Amino acid sequence: MLRKTLIALAITATLAACSHEKEKDPKSGEASASASAVAEKASDDKSKAEKPAPKLLIAAEDIMTVQSNALASGPVVTGSIQPERKADLRSEVSAVVLQVLKENGESVKRGDVLVKLDETSIRDNLNSAEDNARSAAMSLDQAERALQRLKTLRASGMASLQALDEAEVRKNTAQSELSASKARASAARQQLQRTVVRAPFDGIVSERKVSNGDTASIGKELVKVIDPTSMRFAGRVSTDKIAMVKVGQAVSFRINGYAGQEFRGKVTRVDPAANDVTRQVEVLVAFADATQPKVSGLYAEGNIEAQSVNALTLPEAALVKTGDKSYAWQIKGKSLARVDLQIGKRDPRTGNFEILKGLSAGDIVMRSPSSSFKDGQSIEMAVPKAVIPKLALADNAAAQGK
After folding, report:
1. CA angle at residue 255 from 252 to 260, to 5 degrees?
2. 3-state secondary structure of 259
């Protein structure tokens, strides 16, 4: 009986010790639960990784066909937009500015008055010159009549030869004085006309140099007039590339202030001498169409198309660049395929890049790739909206036929 009691006490003590040890270390249960959660997450990730990418629905505007295009290359040309017709109007007389009738940016017609100068002193000179001319004309008339009388008297022997010679001298002197007076009157008349400055052609006032009350000396700038319809690209090319430039070559260039717009032109003149300081040669480029800026002095940069070759090209938007490597997403059958590319130079006209290796003419690629594309991903072409009504009519016709 005592033995059974001792055995029961031993069993009870053992169970109590186990229970106490379990309460003392609760982390063992948490570790077991954590290991189970990690195992379940790894299983889920594996199932997600093994799950295929969803089918991609694309439309006709999402794809493009690789084609062979003309790839132009040539020397770089930099410069500014300048008008072919421009006039720096300067004062031809010394006078005070009375009135400036046009402001910067105002359009003018040929013959419009731009600036009026004070004509008081010049008009006085004109009046004096005209009076002298009239007096000289009267003196000449008297000298001619005296000469005719002496000739008559000389014929009858009543006048000496010396008197006749003196009359001829007085007549010639009066003739010279009349000519000089007329010349002074003409010069004064021209100066009077120059006190009114007029526009030499239809255009726009680009710069006003004087204001009312200013003193305009001879040669002082008054206003500048330009013809905005005669703009051209006055560029410069380095001397080591000038041998490639010929008159008539096409030019593509961009103008500061017209972002995203490309202009086309043609070389019209190559300067026969290089600049002494910059060692560059000036090249004039005419705009190929009527679309041209109306502001002069804008910076421009472009390329002269001295050479042209056929090459496969793709726009920059269709390329995906990772470091030094580039690739595109090609459509092969009903799935996407990542194709590594070797690209060449960039066409300055279109911004497209030359494709040296990886694609062929006629291949179809995605126009704007997405970062979510997967290699081998299935694709499906969307039905154009214009086709949907036709398909609906066909289905209705088929249903009525049944």
Report:
1. 80
2. coil
Calpha distance 230→232 (Å, rounded): 7
Range of the domain at 249: 76-84+233-305
Structural domains of the chain, count: 4
53-65: buried (b, 16+ CB within 10 Å) or exposed (e) per residue? eeebeeeeebbbe
Q: What's at 169, amino acid-wise?
A: V
Tokens 């594309």, residue located: 373
391 belongs to a structural domain:
no
CA pair distance 196, 219, nearest whole angstrom: 15
Q: Given pLDDT bands bounded at 50, 70 and 90, which one contains residue 390?
A: very low
Which segments of 101-202 are extended strands (E)? 107-108, 113-117, 196-198
Q: What is the pTM of this model?
A: 0.57
Residue type for position 97:
V
- Give the model's pLDDT for residue 199: 94
- Indicate if 216 and 99 belong to the same structural domain: yes
Spatial distance between the Cα atoms of 311 and 315, rounded to a whole number of angstroms: 13
For residue 402 the two structure tokens come to: 């049944």
In this structure, are 96 and 138 located in the same domain? no
Average pLDDT, the chain: 81
